[in-house]
Each structure stands twice: as C-alpha cells, then as structure tokens.
Amino acid sequence: MSDREFGGTDDLSLPKATVQKIITEIIPSTSGLTFARDARDLLIECCVEFITLISSEANDIAEKEAKKTIACEHVATALEELGFGDYVQEVMHVATDHKEQLKTREKKQSKIEQSGLSEEELLRQQQELFQSANAKYNQGS
C-alpha cells in the first residue's frame, strides 16, 4: 500500500489534544519536564507512519490468506514480521480486554427508548404537536 491509496500522508493525523493528553499522563507535571510542540508533532507523524506500516503489512498478510477482513491475528503477524514481536503478547492481551469490554458495555438507548413511552403514545404526542403548530401558523395568516 502506498500513501496514494490513503490520499497522501498529509490527510492522515492523530488528534493533537489526544496525543498531548497521553504525553501528559506519561510525563507528570511534577517532573519539571516539558514536551515541545514540534516534538509532539514529530511524535504524531511517527505514530501515523507506524500505523500505516503495520496496517499495510497486516493487509498483505490478510490478502495472502484470501481474507477480506484484517483480524487481530494479522496485526500480530505483521508485528512479528516487522521486528516488533516483543509487543505481540501485550497487543493481544489488550485486544482480548477490548473484546470483553464490548460484550459488557451497556447498549446505548435511543431517545425513543429513553422516553419510556409506547410508540402509540409518542405518535399521539406528535400529532398533538403538529396540530398545535398548524393552529399557530393559521393564526398568523
């Protein structure tokens, strides 16, 4: 995969605020150290390049296996093949934790579900609102 497939690296970035938050968590304010903006920007560029590299390699692995979806195992293999094998165990642990969190995470309720009203009651209220709006409109004419 080339940068052209992604629309060029200029289009790819990570949120500066998120990266700054990560940096701040790693380097506490009590340490007296600061992280220069240009260093943060360089770090962002490195992260994007790393993600692109791993993604590209994982994509090649998935294609060789005639898979249409890149799975965690493809990413793990890509890490191994690119010399980052020391990280595979931790990456797979994080992936497993993430899958577990998704299972236990509460399903977001829609506004309709949050209202606690039946569909019929909601439709009745909607009709009342339409009638009220129509009456106000006709009064102004």
Looking at this protein, list some descriptive labels:
0% strand
Binned, the helix content reads 55-70%
Quickly give the structural class. Answer: mainly alpha
What is the terminal-to-terminal distance?
Answer: 63 Å
Main sheet attributes: strand count, strand direction, barrel closure: none
- The count of helical stretches stands at 6
Fraction in beta strands: under 5%
Output the helix-strand order: HHHHHH
In a few lines, what is going on in this structure?
The protein is mainly α and 141 residues long. The chain contains 6 helices and no strands. Helix 2 (37-64) packs across helix 3 (72-81) and helix 3 packs antiparallel against helix 4 (88-104).
Could you explain the architecture of this structure?
The chain is an all-alpha fold and 141 residues long. 66% of the residues lie in helices and 0% in strands. The protein has 6 helices and no strands. The chain has helices at 16-26, 37-64, 72-81, 88-104, 111-115, 119-140. Helix 3 (72-81) packs antiparallel against helix 4. Residues 1-7 have low confidence and may be disordered.
